Amino acid sequence: MPYIKFHSFAVFIHCPLHPSFLPPREAEKPFVLEASLLESPARMALPNQQQVDYPSFKLVIVGDGGTGKTTFVKRHLTGEFEKKYEPTIGVEVHPLDFTTNCGKIRFYCWDTAGQEKFGGLRDGYYIHGQCAIIMFDVTARLTYKNVPTWHRDLCRVCENIPIVLCGNKVDVKNRQVKAKQVTFHRKKNLQYYEISAKSNYNFEKPFLYLARKLAGDPNLHFVEAVALRPPEVQIDMATQQQHEAELAQAANQPLPDDDDDAFD
C-alpha cells in the first residue's frame, strides 16, 4: 500500500494514484512510527483541542500587526469554528483541514492574536513549528522591510522548515510594494504568493505548497474545495492575470544588492 513520508513521521493511507507513481513492490518497507513521536509536541494541538488520526502539523504565521494574518486564517470556516485560545502564550490555534489525493491533512495554525504589536514573540510561539507563513501588506512598505527580521527570528528557533512568504491585500488599488520590489524570497529560496484574504484570492496556494513539501510529493493536490467565508471583495480575471504577469516578469529581473534598493 502506498504511503506518504512526512518530515516527522509516515502514515499508511489509501492513495488513489496512477500505478506509474507507485514505488516498485520490492522498494516498499514497513515504517515503524516511534512511540515518542506519538506524544511529540510537534503534533501541536492545545491540551483542550481534539487530536486527529491523520497527519497534522504546527504552522506558525508571523508578520507585522495589521498585515491580515488573522483575517487570512479566519477565511477557513472549519478552523474558525474549532479554534482554541492559549492565554499563557497569547495565541489562537486554528485547526485547518484539507483533503488531498492521499488523504486528509491538518495544519494547526498558530495566530499571534496581536501579540507582535507589543514587541517580539516568545520562543514558545515558534518551538516545534514544522512550517511557516511570513505575511506582509503590499500597501505598507514597512511591513515588507520587516520581513527579514521575522525570517531571522523564525529560523533561529525553527531550522530547515518550509516557509512561504505572502504579500497580502493585492485587492487594494494603492499598492506600495510592487511585484518587482519583492525579492527577499529569491535571496532566501522561499516560495512567494500574492494573496487577498478578503477576496479568497490564492487562499489555498500557501497550504498546498507546504503540504507538498512536508509530504515530499510534488504531485499531491487538494481534491475537495475548502469551505471559505464568502468574499468581501472581488478581484476580476483581468486583474488576476495582471498580477501573474507582473510576478513572472519580476522573477526574471536581476536581484538588487539590498532589498532597500528596490524602493529607491
TrEMBL record:
Nucleotidyltransferase recorded as keyword: no
Subcellular location as annotated: Nucleus
Cellular component aspect of the GO annotation: cytoplasm; nucleus
Pfam family, one: Ras
Record's keyword annotation contains Ligase: no
Spans annotated as Disordered: 242-264
Main location: nucleus
Domain of life: Eukaryota
PANTHER family xref list: GTP-BINDING NUCLEAR PROTEIN RAN-1, RAN GTPASE
Summary of subunit composition and partner proteins: Found in a nuclear export complex with RanGTP, exportin and pre-miRNA.
Protein name: GTP-binding nuclear protein
